[in-house]
Amino acid sequence: MTFGLDLRRPNAYIVIACALAIVALAVVFLRRDQLIELIETMQRGNLLLLVMAVGCQFGKYTFQANGYAAAFRTVGDPTSPRHMLPLVFCSYFMNVIAPSFNTAGVLLVIDDARQRGVPAGRSTSAALLMQITVITGFLVIMVIGFIVLAATQHMNVIWFLLGIVMVFMVGIMAGIMYIGSNDPQAMVKLLSPLERLANRVSSRLRKGKLLDPWVQSLVESFSEAGLRIRENPRQAVSAFVFSTFASTCELLCFCLVCLAFNLNQPPMLVGGYVVGTLFSWVAITPQGAGVVEAMLIVVLAAYGINTTAATTVALAYRGIVFWMPFAIGAVLIHRLDSFRRRSRPE
Length: 346
Known about the structure:
The protein is an all-alpha fold. It contains 14 helices and no strands. The chain has helices spanning 10-30, 32-42, 47-74, 81-97, 103-115, 120-151, 157-182, 184-205, 215-231, 233-260, 266-282, 291-302, 307-332, 337-342.
């Protein structure tokens, strides 16, 4: 039972599908002005370069699917990139309609693995490994971008601090995984005060009901992830390489969009992509909606691009990296095995 809805009944699938459709339509309705402006904007650019930009973005999702497959192979699940590709789009869709710092998409991937019979510890470990490689892959591009921004004297303290936050996030995840795999009990002791605090808050908010113990299971998951990586280092490295290629494809997509509207300053191309992607990670809006567009305009303006041209590029680029995967995910979400299996009576 989840929120009073029995997922074992056939009509549960219909309710879930309808709810997702309503939320998707609400997102489109609330952003309809941007969609109309986006269509008008696309008509003013070089069509061939825009098509190539779309192709590069699809290349990103293909590399991400291979990265997910490599992460799951690391923990002993021989899944294929073909199976993971729809999950890439569906994860993006879930992260938009359920803003949760990308955890909604991760939970969808874990649930799909559970439906395929992958133990919870392994699926969580694979998802964690993939998140680390995705952020680390972007960090490679980010370091290059920061060097370019600094060399052209367009570096901003806020952007630099956000980059430090990203590095800090990766360090925490990798550190917990490392300590958990080498000394699980030390990690349990480290996180136990946090669990007790959460239980005290829960007991007040839920009238005496405590949260289920989670520290031990979390540490066990991290520990298993670390051990699996040691056993299959080549697959873990493959996941990182695929994630780096994915970020490179998205960088090329941004460059092609800029070129389609006659913006061709190399430092601006790299710097604009890095700053825009940073804010898509840390913004409180779904996938940085609205925030990323504004920051792209700021970066382009810093290189002397007028507001009209900067807005045109920002809208076109976000149309490809935001609206395209959102629309594909909205179509594919109800076709996932996890949803179809829930629709069958047991």
